[in-house]
What does this fold into?
Amino acid sequence: MLLGAPGSGKGTQGPRLAQRVGVPYLSTGDLLRREAAAGTDLGARVAPYLAEGELVPDDLTLEVVDRALAGAGAEGGFVLDGFPRTVAQADRLGDVDVVLHLALPDDVARLRLAARDEGRADDADPEVIEHRLRVYHDQTAPLLDHYAKRGTLVSVDADRPPAEVMAELDAALDAAAPRAPG
It folds into this structure.
């Protein structure tokens, strides 16, 4: 599982990590945006939260994520990005083998978010960026303590070139492998 502030590199590192271990990459943000774009009833309930940069409520997120996790579990596992985002969601998810935290200072996150263009309407909006960082610190950052207490958290300095971050993530996975089941 990947944790990190918006702009920390989860979307860059996640697909590569999934390919490395041979499992699907599940980006909760992508799953939620796809659901909203599909125009389903669930998507219509998810869309307003996405538009405001808010966390989608647990019941809606779980409805989308549970389906993806069931499919990925049948494929032998997954690399999960964007879920859980709260301790309540983490409790619902249960145990994970390793949690990779992409640590990034807020000032660097702001610069990265303002510079990127991934097709989101709010990519460069300073107010939305600040809001997303506040939501991360208020609701998601407590997961760092949650997983540290379980001995599954590994923090990696994400304020470096992607190749250096990749190398440290690979080393963290290699070190965690003996603890991972199966």
